[in-house]
Amino acid sequence: MSQDYAGVAVLAPVTIAYERYSDHGAAWFIGRCVAELLSATGIDKAQLDGLAVSSLTLAPDSAVSLSEHFGMTLRWAEHLPMGGASAVVSLRRAARAIQAGDANVVACVAGDTQVKGGFQSLIENFSRFSAEAVYPYGAAGPNTVFALITRAYMDQYGATREDFGRLCIAQRDNASHNPLALLRRPLSMQDYLDARPVAEPVHLYDCVMPCAGAEGFLVTSTERARSLGLPYAELLAAEERHNAWPEDPVQLRGGWAQFRDALYATAGLGPGDMHFVQTYDDYPVIALQQLEDLGFCAKGEGPAFLRNTDLRCTGELPMNTCGGQLSAGQAGFAGGHLGTVEALRQLTGQALGQQVAGAKVGLASGYGMVNYDRCLCSAAAILGAQDR
Amino acid sequence: MNDARPLELQVCRHCARVQYPAREVCRDCLGGELERQAVDSAGELLSWCRLHASLEPWFQQRLPWIVVSVRLHAGPVVLAHWSGDEPVIGQTVGVQWTSDHEGRDVLTAQARG
């Protein structure tokens, strides 16, 4: 079991409003996010000595380039190429830096831009394996890989399109309260089922809307957060895995299933103690796998779980309480930060949309980097309110 | 898809593990000598999808387009274009190299009795 994260405070959930397309570069979204983190906390730019950045469209620049761009001298810098797992991983790294005294205040930010026509080159050159062994097969981006995973999951565990529809509809209900979600109009089961096919069995509402935006939070010591009078959450446990289960022919489980027991043991809590869960929802089948692999139901029981569980903010297990990427949009790698930032909002009573009543502990998970036929990074963190 | 050729993939000279996609070193022993060799072209169909959207005009004019994933008996999982009737998960298929519209080497799978 890992050493605990005692003394670490996570605070200042910030979202830079998503736009379908933007003329700004990724550095604009990341820079505006850092500015918001500072103004929300009253911390001076000179006091910020750590910066963890994740971005798909910042290349060839990195966290290092941004120190000059933003006029900051850093004691600690981290650039994370882990896509949707970067939020939890940057939180882990930053927490250890705070515990070790290597940094006093770390900003963990992910931001991306989205230019018209820019999606294709990103997809075509996402990784060496995918350029050679995925893109030539129809040039449909991640939809191909996740359609293959979705059909294999449906075949193996008897999931139906209606099951995935329940998840999407519940999240859209959560999004209807969030002014920053790009998709807020209620979604009916008929709308969901009638949507145009994109990569069967994946249809339109199983896909996220790519957009521009940023998400960020600060990590510091509980002592410093208290002295500044800022509301914070504590990190109770966090884990990551890369290239878990490499011999599985199809990715029907993620790294979460490998570290789940250690994660809950570190927190001294179980899945039944979570007041909400923020899963990485690039496609509904992946969110469903997280519910299974993180112990909210047994493997293969995800479809039945969806039939019997209300995932809305007022339900038994509120999931993706701001609407998730399926409704809020996917601002590149910031899509992975969305859940962690929303968890922080819920635990500090700062929800943009609906507040989950009595939310004291919750789980945020991440998933990223479709290198070939699956995503390689999985991560999860359990966060607790300061007065839990 | 035309110009069908037998299935050759990288094989590790040290441990004989078959590799796909092509690598610099062996995924098992990290050996640095990988040679293209003929391998068993048969496999099990793991999954399939029917594309209705593509980023490339050539495919856009030919939608819907079926792509399959196959676990080769030789070991690796490959994505391949599909030739034939609607695929069935679990069916035995054969995989071969073909040339696509841009002259790239691509894999194509079809049912094998």
Structure report:
The complex is a heterodimer of chains A (388) and B (113). Chain A is an alpha/beta fold and 388 residues long. Chain A folds into two domains: 8-117 and 211-232, Peroxisomal Thiolase, Chain A, domain 1 (3-Layer(aba) Sandwich), CATH 3.40.47.10; 126-208 and 236-385, Thiolase/Chalcone synthase (Peroxisomal Thiolase, Chain A, domain 1, 3-Layer(aba) Sandwich), CATH 3.40.47. Chain A has 14 helices and eleven strands. A nine-stranded mixed beta sheet of chain A has the order 3-2-4-7-1-8-11-10-9, with helices on both faces. In chain A, strand 10 and strand 11 form a beta hairpin. The longest helix of chain A is centred in the first third of the chain and has 16 residues, at 26-41. Chain B has one helix at residues 57-60; strands spanning 2-5, 8-12, 18-19, 34-38, 42-51, 65-72, 77-83, 92-99, 105-111. In chain B, the strands form two sheets. In chain B, strands 5-6-7-9-8 form a five-stranded mixed β-barrel. A three-stranded antiparallel beta sheet of chain B has the order 3-2-4, with no helix packed on it. Chain B starts with a strand and ends with a strand. At the A-B interface, helix 4, helix 5, helix 6 and strand 5 of A face strand 5, strand 6 and strand 7 of B.
Sheet/helix structural class of chain B = mainly beta
- Roughly how many Å apart are the termini of chain B? 21 Å
Q: Outline the low-pLDDT stretches of chain B.
A: none
Q: Judging by the overall fold, what is the CATH architecture of the largest domain in chain A?
A: 3-Layer(aba) Sandwich
Measure the end-to-end span of chain A.
23 Å
Question: Average pLDDT across residues of chain B?
Answer: 96
The CATH architecture of one domain in chain B? Beta Barrel
Strand order of the largest sheet of chain A: 3-2-4-7-1-8-11-10-9
Radius of gyration of chain A: 19 Å
Number of helices of chain A: 14
- CATH class wording of the largest domain in chain A: Alpha Beta
Which topology of one domain in chain B does CATH recognise?
OB fold (Dihydrolipoamide Acetyltransferase, E2P)
Structural class of chain A: alpha/beta
Oligomeric form? heterodimer
Largest interface: A-B, 34 and 30 residues
Mean pLDDT of chain A: 97
Note the run of SSEs of chain A as H and E: EHEHEHEHHHHHEEEHEHEHHHHEE
Relevant CATH superfamily of the largest domain in chain A: Thiolase/Chalcone synthase
Specify the helix fraction band of chain A. 25-40%
Helicity level of chain B: under 10%
Strand content of chain A: 15-25%
